[in-house]
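Field log, afternoon session.

UNIT: design team B
ACTIVITY: writing a sequence onto a fixed backbone
BACKBONE:
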């Protein structure tokens, strides 16, 4: 099974090279890697291009992680797509295990894995917290599922885009399967979009919850009108 990798990147010059090298080091290498540089103010795009000729870099004015990730996914050509944040890392057998899982599963299955957190700038990759990987960096899916669920929405403040997309996938009945192995290293880096608590950024979660309530109300109304 061939697959493509889609990456949204914004001001990721410190980490994008290491992320891409972890993708290129997979036991089953990708058919292509698409990086969308979302208006970075640093050398993200240049560094990504220099890592490998297998990396295609697209640039755009800053529009948000969701829009950049959507563009990257839509630029891929393989039936199967994997996504990763521009500061996280894959362990070498990640894609092999997830491709095996997808091949044995319903065509609408979303494949995930566990991840371990680690702090940027430290050599300790073994003692960080373990999490079930319902994040962009753990996700693998068939592109027809993406077209069914629709584009990734950028909430106010920027947080919650994948929470919203995964909720919509679950609402239309896509099975979620998580491999019970740590296959992703999730970087904790000060200043990143997901770092710490921030009232302005966290407003995105409220917007996502509101959208979910609206969709539920629309489903209820639709069933009552039938």
């Amino acid at each position: 099974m061939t697959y493509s990798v889609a990456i949204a990147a914004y001001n990721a010059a410190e980490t994008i090279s290491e992320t891409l090298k972890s993708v290129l080091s997979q036991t089953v290498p990708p058919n292509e890697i698409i990086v969308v540089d979302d208006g970075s103010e640093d050398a993200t795009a240049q560094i990504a291009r220099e890592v490998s000729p297998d990396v295609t870099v697209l640039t755009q004015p800053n529009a948000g992680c969701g829009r950049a990730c959507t563009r990257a996914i839509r630029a891929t050509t393989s039936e199967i797509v994997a996504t990763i944040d521009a500061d996280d890392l894959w362990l070498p057998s990640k894609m092999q295990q997830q491709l095996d899982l997808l091949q044995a599963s319903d065509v609408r299955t979303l494949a995930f894995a566990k991840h371990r957190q680690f702090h940027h700038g430290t050599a300790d990759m073994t003692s960080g917290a373990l999490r079930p990987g319902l994040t962009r960096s753990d996700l693998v899916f068939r592109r027809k599922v993406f077209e069914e669920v629709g584009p990734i929405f950028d909430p106010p403040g920027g947080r919650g885009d994948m929470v919203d997309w995964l909720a919509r996938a679950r609402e239309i009945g896509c099975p979620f399967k998580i491999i019970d192995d740590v296959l992703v290293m999730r970087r904790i880096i000060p200043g990143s979009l997901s770092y710490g608590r921030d009232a302005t950024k966290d407003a995105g979660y409220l917007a996502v919850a509101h959208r979910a309530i609206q969709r539920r109300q629309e489903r209820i109304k639709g069933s009552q009108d039938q």
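LOG NOTE: Residues 157 and 203 are 6 Å apart (CA to CA).
NEXT ACTIVITY: expression trials, pending approval
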